Amino acid sequence: MEQMNRIKELSEELFPQMLDFCQRIVRIPSEPGKEESVAKVYLAELEALGYDKIFTDPWGNVSGIIEGTETGPAILYNGHMDAVPAGDPSLWEGGDPYSGEIKDSLMYEKELQREEKTRVLFGRGSADLKCGAASQIYAGAILLRLRKEGFPVKGRFITSQVVLEENGEMLGTLKLLDHYDEKKIQVNAMVSCEPSSLRIILGHRGRMELRVTVHGKSCHGSSPWLGVNAVTKAAKLILEIEKTVWSNGHADPDLGKSGIALTILEIEPCELCIVPNKCTMIYDRRLVPGETVESAIAEVQEVIDRLAAEDSDFKAEVGLNANLRRSFTGQGAWIESRKEVWKIDRENPFVQACARGIERVGSSVEYGYWAYSTDIPALSDRGIPVIGYSGAQEFCIHTTDEKVRLDYLKESLAGNAAIFLEAAELAESQFHG
Ligand SMILES: [Zn+2]
User: Per CATH, which fold does 2-204+341-430 belong to?
Assistant: First the structure.
């Protein structure tokens, strides 16, 4: 296919410019809710590259659209503009976490199956996931060049870079999709640029936060028998919940086992000489196929019911945790922390088209699954097929040595453009998650 050769040439040609863009966005800190400055740079880049439509929505998400020369499916390339905080800069091995410096560094190489010295771009947000986002946006630039040169380009290429991903509730992407619904912007499939080491990612576990509250009765600490200590009651419940979840043994051959971790414990009142009347536990709960948000809540409810039957002083309730999130635009909402499991079959026509695209630009096809969760369930819950694909590598994200291999980055630029051309060949009826 002549187009595929041209994609490879254009990825070579555009890569230096893309790298400059990577450096500019890595140099701007963009913690969740503080993406305003970096969003301006994304918008200006889409404008400079000549995207057909560029827009934001009330929550500050940035979108760009490229129309093909022929009708076809709409493929969304999605990433997030926020990055986790850098923490103490003195802990960063390479110096300033926002330097965006390009240098030699030891990095794992998948063919060699060991580390080697190679050129990397360094800094917070480089791997998770600004450089992946840049290779999506520049895949659009390749398509624009192909269109200009008279190659047929089917369908519609959409890039969206969202706010508030790192909080884990998918709020940015959910609001993006609401906006697309309102504007009647259809999405047939999605490519997420969370770090994948050039593999096609086919799934991750669900994630939810359980909020368990144990109620007691306050009294003076000198006479605890006059009250009910909520923490003492919670102690038993904590052990029983873990025992129950682990012994239920939920697991999946690809995604591994489900998980439960007590992460936050709040005691009220938390004062000397007062027996506390309330103890709240927040759990990080990971779900595998066969489990749902509702079934995970019911599992804890059963433990509560059992303990309440044995002890008339035991009172507790369980539900989903919700957090108040605000976007830099001033929008705010309480959002429940719930993501269902995402898993797509490798025989799915969209997955196969993505694999063909990658192969046609000379890359090898490998599949994998993520340990962490992403915004993807916002799409997969709607029956939209999604894959993960990026040249960034998972092992360094959220660390003080975050970096991206330049050679993988260039490979993913060509890969993203090729994926689009192949996926755009599919008929509308072939898209189902
Ligand atoms: Zn990420």
Answer: Aminopeptidase (3.40.630)
In this prediction, residue 277 has a pLDDT band, given cuts at 50, 70 and 90, of very high
Strands (E), 110-166: 114-122, 154-162
- CATH 3.30.70.360 domain range(s) in the chain: 206-325
373 CA to middle of ligand 1, Å?
9
User: Residue 167 C-alpha to ligand 1 middle, in angstroms?
Assistant: 10
Identify the CA nearest to 407 among candidates 28, 120, 152, 54: 120
**Residue 432 has what pLDDT?**
81
Percent share of the chain, pLDDT over 90 = 97
Q: Where in the chain is the domain with CATH 3.40.630.10?
A: 2-204+341-430
> What is the CA(168)–ligand 1 centre distance, in A?
10
Q: In angstroms, what is the span from residue 166 Cα to ligand 1's centroid? A: 6
The CA 158 to ligand 1 mean position distance, Å, reads 19
Q: 17 alpha carbon to ligand 1 midpoint, in Å?
A: 23
Q: Who surrounds ion ligand 1 at CB < 5 A?
A: 128-129, 194
CATH label, 206-325, candidates 3.40.640.10, 3.40.50.150, 3.30.70.360, 3.50.50.60: 3.30.70.360
Beta strands in 269-382 (DSSP E): 278-287, 315-320, 322-326, 332-336, 338-339, 342-343, 367-370
Give the per-residue pLDDT at 279: 98
Dist. CA 224–CA 276, nearest whole Å? 10
Distance 360 CA to ligand 1 centre (A): 27
Q: Does residue 2 carry a pLDDT above 90?
A: no
